[in-house]
């Protein structure tokens, strides 16, 4: 399957793929033109939806909550562009950053931005809506096919004294041109798909796959009451009928009110000084977090236009702690919002919810500074120099400075990590992550910080930090299989961390890997079960039978991952009792991919699934649908080429790969695929030329050089092959190949040197050890 999103520049704006994880077939950069349908404009906007009544109706009974909400980020998430909502300066000024330029104009009550459009030509684009308000505001443009696209120029709405009240480009370092998916007119910026569901209420995306157009509507332009509480009609009816006690949850579909009567209390005799929940279990704790999660996480929707109140994993597949988005110790890195870090926290496991710290209507903290933490952490224990060891009145005395490191996104939007972790500069140093100590103490080393913390609070207790296992998995380090397997099965750690460990298990599986996957398949945490099912991809179809037991799991994400794992398993080999459940889960899986029907990668994924079921006609249609949405979409071209070759149409495969090479001249992957095709067709000389070019496009990737060397050796050019292999002296496969080439031509001493170098990389490498032993036996003759 393709990764959730493509490669992208640093400082990724939240209006892009940060809003949404996207599934795709091979990890390649995406590049294609935006195809806008012609015809009359499709005007999207407010439209009634059964069950929704609007925030205005709620306000008639809930005045304090409405007053708090009206100034919130939720209420200002989106608005029609009017003089009262537009914050930017549209007085006619032209702004340039050296790579991009725009002029901001006003015509009465119309606001216009003059900049480069879909074809690259400069044109005037009227603003249809504002997007956000603090600390920046973006502006949307509606196109004739119903797409809304956010312009890349944002208004810094902070006070002038803080550097605000200016226009700036969100990706100033990226010279994006029209046709690139990241250009503001490209598909990776389409509001309807990327952002709409979290910035409006009662949204129906309204995508028509036949015409490739949108008719997107909402019941309320911004994030209103019913975005969190669910459709309010039944609640209004309950109120008008006299608030009868026999109506469940007062007619609301989402139960957010906690009426348990319990409270967080710090026991007088608790030496830790940390509150515990006292009283009956919280009635709505899970519902609160799961209501916030879809919009405060990086996650891929698996159902279309879900309503509030559904279980998070029934509607979304959240991103795990993926490299580049999270540091190995779990700190936020890319724009991943709050849920993924909060899900790692001790707070979450203790039962803390978002509303314990934030007023749910205003979005503001319930108290300022350390007072919000003091609700549960005794100030006499924690808000003292004996704990924080910083001078009173300095930033180091603030709890958030050490326990909630911040990252700035979109140039000006500083957001804090919600894992509430204990600083571990020693671990950060081991995995190459930042730490809160040296982030403030410029010039200090992480060793110094670790020593200082140990002197203050003692040596950290417990076994190896889980970050070490995550880092080992990311780098393919020796022993990663055992470390990750232990982490995956240790229920003392949060589900997102254990699921991440499963996602990093090496292939082919070792015995510890098999034990970890087998144990995790029946874990009580659905996120862990889903990750274990994904890990079955490393096993042959006949070894995936256990997945049939999860086809009827209570959680949708688990069911569709069970169906995915069983895709290559013939129906006749499944237990007969499991076949109806497979049919239902299979339809859920395909439906989850069709949620992103406007995206080419969704159709590539569907093609791959159908091919595993032997449906060649369906797969071919899916590939056509992918290329209809983007004729240069690299995963579609490469995967369809493999499909054509597999059914004996090598010429068609070559045509597709040559199209891919022409469209992606700087990418080594399509050229590499074409070279391998030529090898299989016996055109070795042509393949060698292509492999040489591939290796030069990506000189730091040893697999390209390795394959080039094998092709040279096949032609008898042993010296040339060895010269290519020498470019990567720490690549295990290259060392084994060099040892084998030298052995076969009688240069046993040189063969021994290469084989020993390979064995030194991993003393447990049985193949390398066997090669060393064989070569040394030859030396002894």
UniProtKB/TrEMBL annotation:
Cite the InterPro entries for this sequence.
Cyt_c-552/4, Multihaem_cyt_sf, Multiheme_Cytochr_ET, Paired_CXXCH_1, TPR-like_helical_dom_sf, TPR_rpt
Q: Which UniProt keywords are present, listed alphabetically? A: Signal
**Positions of the Doubled CXXCH motif domain:** 353-378
Q: What is this protein called?
A: Tetratricopeptide repeat protein
- Native organism is Roseomonas fluvialis
Gene3D superfamilies for the chain: Flavocytochrome C3, Chain A (1.10.1130.10), Tetratricopeptide repeat domain (1.25.40.10)
Membrane-crossing segments per the record:
none
Q: Which domain of life is it from?
A: Bacteria
What are the Cytochrome c-552/4 domain coordinates in residue numbering? 57-82, 190-230
């Amino acid at each position: 399957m393709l990764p959730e999103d493509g490669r992208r520049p640093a400082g990724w704006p939240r209006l892009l793929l940060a809003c949404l994880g996207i599934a795709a077939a091979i990890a390649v950069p995406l590049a294609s033109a935006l195809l806008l349908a012609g015809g009359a404009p499709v005007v999207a906007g407010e439209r009634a939806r059964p069950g929704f009544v609007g925030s205005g109706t709620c306000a008639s009974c809930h005045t304090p909550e409405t007053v708090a909400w009206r100034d919130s980020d939720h209420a200002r998430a989106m608005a029609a562009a009017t003089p009262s909502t537009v914050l930017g300066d549209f007085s006619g000024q032209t702004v340039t950053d050296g790579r991009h330029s725009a002029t901001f104009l006003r015509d009465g009550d119309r606001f216009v931005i003059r900049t480069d459009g879909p074809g690259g030509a400069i044109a005037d684009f009227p603003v249809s809506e504002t997007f956000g308000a603090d600390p920046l505001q973006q502006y949307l443009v509606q196109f004739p096919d119903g797409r809304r696209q956010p312009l890349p120029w944002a208004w810094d709405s902070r006070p002038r004294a803080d550097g605000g009240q200016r226009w700036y480009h969100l990706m100033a370092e990226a010279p994006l041109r029209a046709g690139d998916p990241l250009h503001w007119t490209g598909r990776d910026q389409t509001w309807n798909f990327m952002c709409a569901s979290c910035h409006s209420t009662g949204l129906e995306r309204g995508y028509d796959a036949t015409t490739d157009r949108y008719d997107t509507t909402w019941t309320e332009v911004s994030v209103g009451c019913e975005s969190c509480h669910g459709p309010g009609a039944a609640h209004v009816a309950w109120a008008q009928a006299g608030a009868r006690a026999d109506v469940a949850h007062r007619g609301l579909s989402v139960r957010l009110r906690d009426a348990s009567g319990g409270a967080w209390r710090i026991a007088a005799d608790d030496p830790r000084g940390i509150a515990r929940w006292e009283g009956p279990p919280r009635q709505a704790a899970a519902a609160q977090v799961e209501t916030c999660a879809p919009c405060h996480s990086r996650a891929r929707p698996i159902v279309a236009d879900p309503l509030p109140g559904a279980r998070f994993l029934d509607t979304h597949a959240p991103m795990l702690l993926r490299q580049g988005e999270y540091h190995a110790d779990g700190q936020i890195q890319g724009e991943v919002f709050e849920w993924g870090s909060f899900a790692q926290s001790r707070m979450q496991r203790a039962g803390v919810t978002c509303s314990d710290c934030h007023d749910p209507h205003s979005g503001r903290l319930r108290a300022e500074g350390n007072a919000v933490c003091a609700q549960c952490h005794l100030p006499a224990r924690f808000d003292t120099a004996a704990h924080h060891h910083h001078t009173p009145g300095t930033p180091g005395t603030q709890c958030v400075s050490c326990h909630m490191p911040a990252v700035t996104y979109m140039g000006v939007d500083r957001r804090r990590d919600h894992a509430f972790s204990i600083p571990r500069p020693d671990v950060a140093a081991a995995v190459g992550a930042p730490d809160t100590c040296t982030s403030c103490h410029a010039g200090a080393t992480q060793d110094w910080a670790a020593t200082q913390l140990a002197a203050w609070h003692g040596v950290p207790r417990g076994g190896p930090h889980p970050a070490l296992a995550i880092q080992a998995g990311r780098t393919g380090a020796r022993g990663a299989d055992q470390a990750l397997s232990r982490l995956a099965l240790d229920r003392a750690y949060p589900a997102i961390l254990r699921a991440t460990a499963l996602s990093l298990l090496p292939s082919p599986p070792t015995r510890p890997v098999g034990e970890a996957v087998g144990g995790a398949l029946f874990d009580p945490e659905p996120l862990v079960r889903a990750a274990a099912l994904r890990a079955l991809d490393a096993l042959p179809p006949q070894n995936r039978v256990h997945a049939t037991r999860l086809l009827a799991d209570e959680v949708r994400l688990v069911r569709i991952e069970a169906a995915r794992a069983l895709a290559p398993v013939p129906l006749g080999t499944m237990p007969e009792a499991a076949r109806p459940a497979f049919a239902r889960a299979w339809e859920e899986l395909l439906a989850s991919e069709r949620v992103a029907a406007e995206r080419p990668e969704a159709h590539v994924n569907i093609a791959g699934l159908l091919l595993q079921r032997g449906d060649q006609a369906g797969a071919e249609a899916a590939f056509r649908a992918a290329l209809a949405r983007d004729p240069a979409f690299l995963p579609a071209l490469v995967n369809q080429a493999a499909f054509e070759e597999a059914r004996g149409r090598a010429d068609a495969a070559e045509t597709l790969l040559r199209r891919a090479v022409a469209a992606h001249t700087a990418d080594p992957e399509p050229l590499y695929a074409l070279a391998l095709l030529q090898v299989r067709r016996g055109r070795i000389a042509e393949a060698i030329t292509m492999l040489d070019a591939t290796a030069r496009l990506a000189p730091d990737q040893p697999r390209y050089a390795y394959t080039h060397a094998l092709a040279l050796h096949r032609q008898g050019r042993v010296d040339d092959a060895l010269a290519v292999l020498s470019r990567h002296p720490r690549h295990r496969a290259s060392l084994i190949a060099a040892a084998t080439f030298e052995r076969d031509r009688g240069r046993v001493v040189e063969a021994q040197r290469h084989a020993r170098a390979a064995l030194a990389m991993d003393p447990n490498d049985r193949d390398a050890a066997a090669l060393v032993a064989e070569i040394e036996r030859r030396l002894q003759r």
